[in-house]
Amino acid sequence: MDELDRRLAAADPAGAHPYRVPAGVVARVVATERPTRVVRPFAWRVAAAAAASVALSIGAVTALGQLAPAVATLEVSAAVPSPVGAGPAAFTSANAIAGPVTAAPAHRLAPEPPPPASIAPVRLTGLGGLSRAARRLARALGVAGPATPLGVAPASWRVGRAPGASVVVTGGPVAQWSYSSSSPAIAPATQATGPVRARSERARLRARAEGLLARLGLHLTLGRASDVAATMDGATAHDVYRELTATFVVTQGGWPTDQRVELSLGARGRLLYAAGPDVTPRAAAPYALEPPNAALRAIGATTAHAGTAHVARQARWALSLRAFVVRGRGTWWLPIYTFTTRAGARWQVLATASGEVRVAPHATGLDGKGVVAP
Amino acid sequence: MAPRDEVRFRRLVDEHAGAVGDYLRRRLYPVSPADLDDLVEETLLVVWRRLEDVPADAERPWMIGVARNVLRNARRSSVRRRALQATLRPVPDDPPAEERVVADVALVQALASLSDDDREIVTLNAWDGLEPRDLAAHLGISANAAAVRLSRARGRLRAALARGEDDAKEAHPS
Questions:
Q1: Which of A17, A48, A71, A312 qualifies as a FRET site for B111, CA 20 to 30 Å off?
Q2: Is the distance from CB of A266 to CB of A243 less than 8 angstroms?
Q3: Above 0.85 for ipTM, yes or no?
Q4: Which residues from chain A sit within 8 angstroms of residue B89, using beta carbons?
Q5: For residue A109, is pLDDT > 70?
Q6: pLDDT for the residue A53
Q7: Residue B165 is inside which H or E element, if any?
Q8: Are A312 and A341 in contact (CB under 8 A)?
Q9: Domain of B13?
Q10: Does B87 share its domain with B117?
């Protein structure tokens, strides 16, 4: 080693403290799905022959069905409450259990299309600290002013100057942001509020919501609008819109989630209010998905929910993604079945095959069988 | 997923991920541990997905090459973000990592005076421990060409150091 090497070595920024990879990084990487390799024609024939022989063997098929995918086990430690203002479809508002409790609950469901064989859980990561996130969103929305802490539990930061426009970011398992313009709400002399049925207006709101998310750097996809309404100056259909509001379900991989994006536009299309989650979704390797009946049995196996299983004879199920805190791995969207009876009773159960998702002892917001508390 | 693949991946992590993290930190210093972990994770994700492509005889250079591309993408994103921010508030450009990190001022200036290619090959050799054979795999050139390029770059660094020290003597004669 000559003098030049010694000087270069002394100037090495990483020389004093070599980097060590956190164990969680490796576990997350290994848990992701690897792409399928391109298969050549010859290999196709070999693969097809092998696949056919496997398919002919019931034992092999059974064995394959029992094989656990090489993905990390997720240990759920808490169910994340749906965000405030998540719209009329918020699950927490409709979790009441009705019907008589019976000693021998039946587990039958009305015929439904089968659910997919697997579904990918999705890790939700924030885009930095709350104050940093508030500044980032404020910059994107053109809001000026100091960043000030608003509260500790939950922690929240606001950027803006009262009574001007402001951006607020509230922490938690799924951080939420909101933007509010400076326009004071002055009630018109006469006012009517009702759903917006015009397709063009709904499309305009959707385009604005998608454009807003892109501007904020949030890679979220929007599903159907769960609520679109207009407040009008005057009480007739010919009056001018004063404010249009819409609530969109955030979707992931085509599945609805428990998160919502809200948008409110003024008469001239000016953004008055907007809110949504400040997260980046990252899908992991798909997990095997248990059928709805298995999830329903989980409800029946829990004494506290025995009555619901009886009621669920005529229940319909829906598959969606809900946020859960996973021990040591942050917040994830995990699949849940939501069962709804004709009477309006509704409850939710984690919808993954046993062994791949575990409920931690003393988890909050759900029981050991994965039944989410009302 | 075949366990054999995972075993190989974990061995690659054990043997080379530290070097990948150091490579990224050297070029981004100062960088927060969280940001560094994110970049390493992104690099390892590519390695995991392209495990079959990792050459057995040049694993570390290949992984550092992936890290270099990840870093390049991150810088591009950063540039785009700053361009957006610049419309709202001017943000001063950050100097290159080497300029901020190295305490040896003469060496800082000498490194800064080199071309990007020269600086890269010198630091890859001196800091990341890549020998000419590894440099050849990393840069996609022959081992002989890598050795020649490294030798010439080091020569230019020595000359720049000498020039800088001569200038310093002229400016502050003892």
A1: A17
A2: yes
A3: no
A4: 139
A5: no
A6: 58
A7: helix B143-171
A8: yes
A9: 1-94
A10: no
Q: Is the pLDDT of residue A61 over 50?
A: no
Same domain, B129 and B89: no
User: In the listed set B33, B65, B94, which residue is the last one of a domain according to the structure?
Assistant: B94
Average pLDDT, chain A: 73
Q: A10 and chain B: CB distance < 8 Å anywhere? A: yes
The average pLDDT across A224-229 equals 76
Strand bridging mode A147-152 / A155-160: antiparallel
Q: Domain with B60 in it: what CATH number? A: 1.10.1740.10
Of B25, B51, B97, the CB nearest to A19: B25
User: Does B107 share its domain with B174?
Assistant: yes
From B45, B61, B94, give the residue that closes a domain. Answer: B94
pLDDT reported for residue A74: 83
- Spatial distance between the Cα atoms of B38 and B71, rounded to a whole number of angstroms: 11
- Nearest CB neighbour to A13, from listed B1, B85, B101: B101
The answer on pLDDT for A186 being more than 90 is no
CA distance A177 to chain B (A): 19
- Which of the pair, A57 or A321, is modelled with greater confidence? A321
* Number of domains forming the structure of chain B: 2
Sequence ranges of the domains in chain A: 42-71, 74-121+284-364, 127-281
Per the CB < 8 A criterion, the answer to whether A311 and A99 are in contact is: yes
B171 touching chain A per CB within 8 A: no
Name the 3-class secondary structure at A202. helix
Query: A219-230: string of b/e by CB count within 10 Å (b at 16+)?
Result: ebebbebbbbeb
Nearest residue of chain B to residue A126 (CA atoms): B34
Q: What is the pLDDT of residue A98?
A: 28
- The nearest CA of chain A is from the CA of B140 a distance in Å of 24
Span A292-299, average pLDDT: 75
Both B1 and B78 in a single domain? yes
Same domain, yes or no: B166 and B117: yes
The pLDDT of residue A371: 82
Taking CA atoms, what residue in A is nearest to B5? A30
Question: What is the per-residue pLDDT across A33-47, written as a single tens digit (0 to 9) for each?
Answer: 776 554 444 455 555
Residue numbers of B between 77 and 106 with CB closer than 8 Å to A: 81, 84-85, 88-89, 97, 101-104
* Range scoring the smallest mean pLDDT among A187-191, B20-24, B54-58, B150-154: A187-191
Question: Is pLDDT of B151 > 90?
Answer: yes
* Own/partner pairs, B14-18, CB within 8 angstroms, 24+ separation: B15/B59, B15/B60, B16/B59, B16/B60, B16/B63, B17/A19, B17/A21, B17/A26, B17/B44, B17/B63, B18/A18, B18/A19, B18/A20, B18/A21
State chain B's mean pLDDT as an integer. Answer: 79
Distance from CA of A237 to the nearest CA of B (A): 41
Q: Do B77 and B54 share a structural domain?
A: yes
CATH of the domain at B131: 1.10.10.10
